[in-house]
Amino acid sequence: MTIRNILLHPDPRLKKIATPIVDLSDELRVLADDMLATMYEAPGIGLAAPQIGVLERLIVLDCVKEEGADPRPVAMFNPEITASSDELSVYDEGCLSIPEIYAEVTRPAEVSVRWMGLDGAEHNETFDGLWATCVQHEIDHLNGKLFIDYLKPLKRQMITRKMQKLKRELAR
Ligand code: K1U
Ligand code: ZN
Please, which of 7, 103, 153, 156 could form a disulfide with 11 given CB 3.0 to 4.6 Å? Predict the structure, then answer.
């Protein structure tokens, strides 16, 4: 497994709409494995393919947080939200492409998702809690949307300026 480089905001590739996956190839299975390894290493609870510069509709997540609980790595090809609750939930979100910055985002508390799994079969599941927040955050990445896009323009601008400075320093 290869740990991939995670793109940092601002990057034009993080603003693009990712392409649907047509055939589940061995290459895509390797990509999913690499993304899970990259996510665990970061560490994070989710990762979307555009974050490693691959503009295809693939996300991975594992939101099991309880100490000693079994991990639950999930890879979703072409994930789609098929239903959202009216009830909302607020979570202090982070993003591996915007490190060390957290902000409250309001989203539906429960979402039903359809996706193609590593086995090539269709899966359907309803998520709540952190899983619901994370899967929505990751699907947003596939549509070129970042969690800071939910914030007021001034706050978003401040974060973007901070990230531009960080990227300049890292490039030195
Ligand atoms: O997509 C990403 O950038 C990953 C992101 C997912 C996410 C976090 C919080 C709310 C919604 C979506 C992260 O994983 S940021 C890191 C993080 O939250 C975390 C890291 C280690 C342990 C627990 C959480
Ligand atoms: Zn993110």
Answer: 7
Whether the CB of 96 sits within 6 Å of ligand 1: yes
Which residues are paired to 91 by β-bridges?
105
Distance, in Å, from the CA atom of 158 to the CA atom of 14, rounded to the nearest integer, reads: 18
**Domains defined for the chain, CATH in brackets:** 12-171 (3.90.45.10)
Residue 93 CB–ligand 1 contact under 6 Å: yes
For 124, the token pair is 């359907």
Distance between Cα 131 and ligand 1 center (Å): 11
| 106-132 per-position pLDDT tens digit | 999 999 999 999 999 999 999 999 999
The pTM of the full predicted model, rounded to 2 decimals, is 0.98
Q: What is each CA distance from 53 to 8, 58, 73, 107, in whole angstroms?
A: 10, 12, 21, 26
